[in-house]
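Hey, resending since the last one bounced:
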Amino acid sequence: MRFDKRARPSWDSYFMDIANLVARRSTCLRRAVGAVLVKDRRILATGYNGAPSGVRHCAETGCLREKLKVPSGQRHELCRGIHAEQNAIIQAAFHGVSIRGADLYCTNQPCSICARMIINAGIKAIYYQDGYQDELAREMLAEAHISVQHLDPSQMPEVCS
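The structure tokens again:
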């Protein structure tokens, strides 16, 4: 059997594909998000958005934000779920894994709440697939000198490296 290098995904594509797979575990009724923390091309932790462990999912209780007609990106405190980025950071802490200097691959650009956690966790770069309208998050990440890069799935190279 001949090895075909073109069939092997780039590292960015590989980690973003994993973030998309992680997002499939989401229990959020509005948006499925996945996150992967990576350092030295090794996965440190993953997270998806949804209710905390042991708490009923929104599929059972309904979405309070939907009931109150809260627009996307506003009033995050009215959600019983935890964001994917938060869950990845929490999982790393729970298992004693240092994420200082790690990269975050996320299906969505982080919100301002997650941006604050990302900054204090020492994450150095964010790679995201879909945009999120949160100007404060973008401003804080830029001020903290955290690299933020949009990875368009249709333009990601499928090249071995």
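Strands lie at 34-39, 42-48, 103-108, 125-130, 147-150.

Sorry for the duplicate.
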